[in-house]
Design brief:
Helices cover 55% and strands 18% of the residues. It contains nine helices and eight strands. Strand 3 and strand 4 form a beta hairpin. It is elongated.
């Protein structure tokens, strides 16, 4: 019933257009010139109504189809792929319908029709000028089409663009909207994702590895830290029980660099897990091995 409301207004406008175009001049005694204007008005309203109804049909069909594919489930790669494709396809069809409707409407006027004939007579020059003027716009639209086909990004993908971490919120023909983690919105042209490097953390799957770096003194007991890391992960709901590693990744002049590696089902879960593990490992060192925190040693030699 809710979707039927989309069609009520365009259908009413369609009936009004048919009345204006066909019945009004017959029922009402009006001059020929005014009758011609009324018929032209009816034709324009008819084109608008048909275009409106077609757009409503496209959107209703898309909504009903995508309703079966819920993107809120954890393993939603296929769902996000379908949502991306059909949302861009909808925008393409709506754009084409509006352009066609605008062209048909303008061709109702003799002056515009004559201008069109003159332009077609010099199609070579007009095409060159139009191509140069619309090169960037057409390139952006074609980039949007290529994103729909190749899908380097999808709706709700986790990406890093311009050193900003966020989710793909909208994919339009000419631009993409990224929802940054702090609720800002980053808007970039579609061509960016075909010309510039960026990180897509959910390209093939949503699971991801998280890292935590801890710097300690050389005297730190590594095995005790490994046991503590395992204990922390097993008690945390964000850990997916796949990866649990603690390694010494560097030995600097004054400290050891320890890297804790852990896995999570999604990047937001990985973030929560990382900050939790970092905080608890530091607390563990402060409580159990305060002597192993980073320190600077100074040797004093007694002189005679």
């Amino acid at each position: 019933m809710r979707h039927l409301k989309r069609f009520i207004l365009p259908v009413l406008i369609l009936l009004l257009a048919l009345f204006i175009k066909g019945l009004a001049p017959v029922i009402i005694d009006i001059p020929d010139e005014l009758s011609h204007a009324i018929r032209m008005l009816g034709s324009i309203v008819l084109v608008i109504a048909i275009t409106w109804a077609a757009i409503a049909l496209i959107r209703t069909t898309k909504i009903n189809f995508l309703k079966r594919y819920d993107t809120s489930v954890p393993d939603n790669l296929r769902m996000r792929k379908l949502h991306t494709q059909y949302n861009i396809l909808e925008k393409i069809l709506v754009f084409i319908l509006i352009v066609i409707a605008l062209g048909i409407t303008l061709m109702q006027f003799d002056a515009v029709r004559n201008i069109g004939i003159s332009i077609f007579a010099s199609a070579g020059i007009a095409g060159l000028i139009l191509g140069l003027a619309a090169q960037k716009a057409l390139g952006t639209i074609l980039a949007g089409l290529q994103i729909a086909i190749t899908q380097p990004i999808r709706l709700d993908d986790v990406v890093i663009v311009e050193n900003e971490w966020g989710w793909i919120e909208e994919i339009n023909l000419t631009y993409v909207v990224i929802r940054i983690w702090d609720k800002r919105r980053l808007v970039v042209p579609s061509t960016y994702f075909l010309e510039q490097p960026f990180q897509n953390w959910t390209r093939t799957s949503a699971d991801i590895l998280g890292t935590v770096f801890i710097y300690t003194d050389y005297t730190v007991p590594i095995d005790a830290l490994r046991k503590e890391l395992t204990k922390l992960l097993e008690s945390n709901k964000y850990w997916d029980k796949k990866v649990n590693v603690l390694q010494v990744t560097d030995a600097k002049e004054h400290t050891l660099e320890l890297r804790a590696l852990m896995s999570a089902a999604t990047s937001p879960d990985a973030w929560e897990l990382r900050v939790y593990v970092r905080e608890k490992l530091v607390e563990f060192l402060q409580r159990e091995y305060p002597q192993c925190l980073p320190k600077t040693r100074v040797a004093m030699e007694k002189t005679q």
